Amino acid sequence: xxxxxxxxxxxxxxxxxxxxxxxxxxxxxxxxxxxxxxxxxxxxxxxxxxxxxxxxxxxxxxxxxxxxxxxxxxxxxxxxxxxxxxxxxxxxxxxxxxxxxxxxxxxxxxxxxxxxxxxxxxxxxxxxxxxxxxxxxxxxxxxxxxxxxxxxxxxxxxxxxxxxxxxxxxxxxxxxxxxxxxxxxxxxxxxxxxxxxxxxxxxxxxxxxxxxxxxxxxxxxxxxxxxxxxxxxxxxxxxxxxxxxxxxxxxxxxxxxxxxxxxxxxxxxxxxxxxxxxxxxx
Length: 282
Description:
Number of strands: 10
CATH superfamily: Divalent-metal-dependent TIM barrel enzymes
Order of helices and strands: EHEHEHEHEHEHHEEEHEH
CATH topology: TIM Barrel
Structural class: alpha/beta
Oligomer: single chain
Radius of gyration: 18 Å
Distance between the termini: 23 Å
Strand order of the largest sheet: 2-1-10-7-6-5-4-3
Helix content: 40-55%
CATH class: Alpha Beta
Largest sheet: 8 strands, parallel
Shape: globular
CATH architecture: Alpha-Beta Barrel
């Protein structure tokens, strides 16, 4: 099992701390979504002028950077914003080649009052431009099941329109189930052959919370994590299981020292349970 965590969960950790804790807790990768308050990590010395030093640290620790999580939205009607996203993708594509990272995470984005059909057409045109940035490079954009593109049907519609092997899916196993009630089997049946990467989190309903739910340590909520893991393993998924601990957005949740260690332990237990149980049939 390949475990990773995103840097959203450890906003105050230095690179040295991230690497040492990843090794200590049994992770194989670190997914970068910001570093020490800067979301655009390519602006920092560690990912610009000190690239060789950073790569050396990862190699020495035998860790990977499986994904760079960008802020790019496929749907935007702003020419200026689209230009910014193109520039951001160029930076991340360069980093991917340097660190042999296969994926860049992108969002579908909020469509507001736009008709779904119109929004899909706009997102398709934008994505065609974005894909030109990575054309000929060993890099794939991953559309996350998130925001107005959480539904497997909405994601599939966009994938079908774009029709490119360089646009695949990041299944955030939490969002479809929690926010729109989509069962994991439904998600897999529609998107399974396009899922290359996964994000993991747990929660329980909490009406008074601004999101309507409260994030919690894995196993303490009611997301069907066992079913999701079993489904992925039974269907031959070999990608990363990445903890997206949203400490940056939700400072009230546990500190990374607790959450990262607990996640690694929980997932190893989950693996043992699934290995000893019967195979699911679909």
